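User: Before I run my own analysis I want an independent prediction to cross-check against. Here's the chain; please return only the structure tokens and, at the end, one sentence I can use as a sanity check.
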Amino acid sequence: MLYRFGGKEQFYVGGRYNTVNGKDNDTADERKIDRYNLGGGWFMTKNILAKVEYVNQKYNNDPVWGATSALRGGKFNGLMFEATIGF
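Assistant: Structure tokens:
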């Protein structure tokens, strides 16, 4: 979902939720990843965008990831600041 506003619709706020799950084969445990983002941005010009997002991403704690994998039960949450220039 994205909502644009401002005189030239140069600002936006939005959010999204993604999830993915599946098995490597019929006998494997299921992998699952959940992620949601909430954020907003400003198109400073038609080529330059600055944005800030809060991100929360979690991996399930099943052995399918491997005993020493950082992904097993891993998670990330925090703020991201980004800027981009496109041509």
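Sanity check: The domain at 2-85 is CATH 2.20.200 (Outer membrane efflux proteins (OEP)).
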